[in-house]
Design goal:
584 residues, six-stranded antiparallel β-sheet, Insulin-like growth factor 2 mRNA-binding protein 3, translation regulation, 24 strands
């Protein structure tokens, strides 16, 4: 990749002009400039020089009144699935970058390029040309932490006529060579688990785990090929501190075992007589599946490993702490085996959820899925979260003034499940409302024999997603649906009566497309009498992601209708007082 394309070249520019610029910036070239009308080509002696030329000149240097654009020269036949992304913030975590790239398709490899630049550079291969093209369009020029990303094609020697997609899940497949944990940090394992191991340790043992001048922790990371973060500054004065371990599942387990050994030795040396259990932190979304129906999964782990396992109550959850504490008691060997089994279940749940999330993320408009905090990247102490990095071009909800508009959804649950949703003394529904940032109320039963109850959820799109996700999950955890049965519920949303036709479409075309796309059943009952607000009901039935996708698609249709209404509003007559502009 030594050949450069120089674009936006003035018609007055000559080979000597370009030669002068390269000489001024001390950039070597290994051949003459081939100057065409509006653009030019030149060869550099090596890839490093070519990268420097792109970084120093592109978008920064002017020639005859035009700012030059410099990038790799890629023949059209080789503009396939490979991109180079430059100007990545130097301290950015790979988890954040991975999540951003996966929004646009299945990433087959992502390799860091070694350069002399302060910012990071990666070469990315997507599974299809369309995915690469979409990533190029969305990411090029987008801002990330005050850095404008620069994206260009790079030659793909293996480019072949594009066939049908391979069917791989949207997201990351095989990764490229090892990369650093973030630019400038230690090596990142090639097959690192997407979900780290998080444990709580007594504060008095943190010093022993770190060791003199960090020697002990460095030794652990080296031996186990892991990256370990000890969050000493979290919860000042707390009796316990969280530790996050990034590695392969085996590396995480080895590091955890070593930490337990160190704590045990320190306890003996300091005559600390209390039992030191292993405490694992896990996101609440995965705990139900770890426990299993009637606690079977957890009981099996206890029996197989000879340990006693307890899990902190739901009441301990807060908006800022979505993790539960899994306390494992037993010998170090037994606790170590239990950790492997517990984390195996957690990782399986995570992979299942992320596969579903990645499958739908490109389809759900108006909703920043990465900002929901439903997955571990948003957990405390786990480094920068995607919650701080909305996808380029993402907009929350259907608002026009910045904040997402509040929506009302009526979700119907089995009448017998009302107690589980409300919780003891209303604790669960209060906690859920606080966690989701939504108003959640259960409507009175419509009769003594009512088999369903209506849950009224009011809040913006992200709050709706969180609240409904937790309700679906709770019904599964509490065994209101069988172990192999998917939770399917009915949701009602109200739409203006004049917009119902847009939801249905000509000859039912739109509603049929909605059903095919979302796998949800969408019905707009005929002959409805609009309510006092001139609204009618749209019924949506299906599993969680199907319901969410259908809700968002319908809200998108309504947003289009509102925009068209605004555009069609008559303009004020000439001479009338112009509206006072809103202060930003």
């Amino acid at each position: 990749m030594n050949k450069l394309y120089i674009g936006n070249v003035s018609a007055e520019a000559s080979e000597e002009d370009l030669e002068s610029i390269f000489k001024q910036w001390k950039i070597q070239h290994s051949g003459p400039f081939l100057v065409k009308t509006g653009y030019a080509f030149v060869d550099c002696p090596d890839e490093k020089t070519a990268m420097r030329a792109i970084d120093v000149l592109s978008g920064k240097v002017e020639l005859h009144g035009k700012v030059l654009e410099v990038e790799h020269s890629v023949p059209k036949r080789q503009r396939s699935c490979k991109l180079q992304i430059r100007n990545i913030p130097p301290h950015m975590q790979w988890e954040v970058l991975d999540g951003m790239l996966a929004q646009y398709g299945a990433v087959e490899s992502c390799e860091q390029v070694n350069t002399d630049m302060e910012t990071a550079v990666v070469n990315v291969r997507y599974a299809t040309r369309d995915q690469a093209r979409l990533a190029m369009e969305k990411l090029n020029g987008s801002m990330m932490e005050n850095y404008a990303l620069k994206v260009s094609y790079i030659p793909d020697e293996t480019a072949a006529p594009e066939g049908p997609p391979s069917g791989g899940r949207r997201g990351f497949n095989a990764r490229g060579p090892p990369r650093s944990g973030s630019p400038g940090l230690g090596a990142r394992p090639k097959v690192q688990s997407d979900i780290p191991l998080r444990v709580l340790v007594p504060t008095q043992f943190v010093g022993a785990i770190i060791g003199k001048e960090g020697a002990t922790i460095r030794n652990i990371t080296k031996q186990t090929h892991s990256k370990i973060d000890i969050h000493r500054k979290e919860n000042a004065g707390a009796a316990e501190k969280p530790i996050t371990i990034h590695s392969t599942p085996e590396g995480c387990s080895n590091a955890c075992r070593t930490i337990m050994d160190i704590m045990q030795k320190e306890a003996v040396d300091t005559k600390f007589t209390e039992e030191i259990p292993l405490k694992i932190l896990a996101h609440n979304n995965f705990v139900g599946r770890l426990i299993g129906k009637e606690g079977r999964n957890l009981k099996k782990i206890e029996q197989d490993t000879g340990t006693k396992i307890t899990i902190s109550p739901l009441q301990d959850l807060t908006l800022y702490n979505p993790e539960r504490t899994i306390t494992v008691k037993g010998s170090i060997d037994a606790c170590s085996r239990a950790e492997e089994e517990v984390m195996k279940k957690i990782r399986e749940s995570y992979e299942s959820d992320m596969a579903a999330m990645n499958l739908q993320s490109n389809l759900i408009p108006g909703l920043n899925l990465n900002a929901l905090g439903l997955f571990p990247s948003g957990a405390p102490g786990m480094g920068p979260s995607m919650a701080n990095v909305p996808p380029p071009g993402a907009h929350g909800g259907c608002s026009y003034g910045g904040q997402p508009e509040s929506e009302t959804v009526h979700l119907f649950i089995p009448a017998l499940a009302v107690g589980a949703i409300i919780g003891k003394q209303g604790q669960h529904i209060k906690q859920l409302s606080h966690f989701a940032g939504a108003s959640i109320k259960i409507a009175p039963a419509e009769g003594m024999d009512a088999k369903q109850r209506m849950v009224i959820i009011v809040g913006p799109p992200e709050a709706q997603f969180k609240a409904q996700c937790r309700i679906f999950g709770k019904l599964k955890e509490e065994n209101f649906f069988g172990p192999k049965e998917e939770v399917k519920l009915e949701a009602h949303i109200k739409v203006p009566s004049f917009a119902a036709g847009r939801v249905i479409g000509k000859g039912g075309k739109t509603v049929n497309e909605l059903q095919n796309l979302t796998c949800a059943e969408v019905v707009v009952p005929r002959d409805q009498t609009p309510d006092e607000n001139d609204q009618v009901i749209v019924k949506i039935s299906g599993h969680f992601f199907a319901c969410q996708l259908a809700q968002r698609k319908i809200q998108e249709i309504l947003a289009q209708v509102r925009r068209q209404q605004q555009q069609q509003q008559p303009k004020p007559p000439s001479g009338s007082q112009p509206p006072i502009p809103r202060r930003k």
